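pls design
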């Protein structure tokens, strides 16, 4: 019991230190690094949202970027009609939840690669609608957001803290879900969905609810991203590479873990930026090779692997002490 309390205390202290560091960071780094860390926060949100489905129900939503794009376009359209940002952000979340609810039951009947392909098709369908409703979304011309009347330095900090708050909320929500009865239910789906259903667990309800939660969080990230960029196009916010990168981050950090996607997002984005800086021509190829090597040598993810090493080290220390 004492060890459990000590562990919780260490985690709480670590989170507090990290929060303080991130609060100070905007005043000690350049605009370049501020934008990079802001993008890391954004990817953590997208990766955690995908990780809820991927790590606990074993459904991989390759097309989850549809909610990112839907959030961006909904907020942009609402703001272009004079709406404030927060109500505009909520419009995107509501539409994302509604879309999940409407297509959830038929799509979640599919499994494996069939479900993955269905989500990709959903992304393509919504992107086509956005591209062909010129009067509403700007069509091929894209969509512009009202630019906040702030100095560039202040503007960077403004969106940095927006993404930081969303990232912290996403991680906290994920923790609360996984540690609750809801978390036990979705883990039972991962273990054996048929057995879970036979025990009276409404697996359809839990899968749809998990997907809706991830969709809403992803739409929030898309809305903030669109406002941050001030201009969006369908090829930017419905881009499959956003979802693919997030899936790689989950795999790299570790599926079915709270902090795995967080670690994966930081490492992947920093690694991507570093390789891009030194190897512009071969950037994607080298990044792919490094990602494959990391996933191959740490199949459970970096976070789980590090935890195993720590546990093994402590056990060896105890055995050594006994001798």
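designed seq:
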């Amino acid at each position: 019991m004492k060890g459990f309390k000590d562990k919780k205390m260490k985690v709480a202290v670590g989170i507090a230190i990290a929060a303080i560091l991130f609060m100070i960071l905007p005043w000690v780094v350049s605009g370049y690094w501020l934008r990079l860390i802001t993008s890391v926060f954004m990817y953590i949100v997208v990766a955690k949202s995908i990780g809820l489905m991927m790590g606990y129900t074993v459904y991989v939503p390759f097309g989850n970027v549809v909610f990112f794009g839907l959030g961006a376009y909904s907020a942009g359209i609402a703001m272009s009609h004079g709406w404030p940002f927060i109500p505009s952000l909520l419009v995107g979340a509501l539409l994302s939840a509604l879309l999940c609810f409407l297509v959830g039951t038929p799509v979640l009947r599919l499994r494996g690669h069939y479900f993955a392909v269905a989500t990709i098709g959903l992304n393509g369908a919504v992107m086509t609608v956005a591209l062909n409703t010129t009067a509403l979304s700007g069509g091929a011309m894209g969509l512009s957001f009202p630019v906040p009347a702030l100095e560039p330095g202040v503007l960077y900090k403004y969106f940095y803290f927006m993404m930081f708050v969303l990232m912290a909320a996403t991680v906290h929500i994920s923790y609360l879900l996984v540690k609750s009865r809801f978390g036990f239910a979705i883990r039972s789906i991962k273990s054996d969905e048929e057995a879970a259903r036979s025990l009276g667990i409404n697996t359809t309800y839990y899968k749809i609810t998990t997907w809706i939660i991830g969709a809403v969080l992803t739409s929030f990230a898309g809305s903030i991203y669109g406002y941050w960029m001030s201009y969006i196009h369908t090829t930017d916010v419905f881009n499959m590479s956003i979802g693919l990168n997030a899936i790689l981050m989950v795999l790299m950090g570790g599926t079915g873990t709270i902090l795995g996607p967080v670690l994966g997002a930081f490492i992947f984005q920093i690694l991507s930026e570093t390789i891009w800086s030194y190897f512009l021509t071969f950037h994607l190829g080298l990044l792919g090779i490094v990602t494959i090597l990391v996933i191959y040598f740490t199949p459970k993810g970096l976070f789980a692997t590090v935890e195993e090493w720590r546990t093994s080290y402590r056990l060896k220390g105890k055995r050594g002490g006994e001798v």
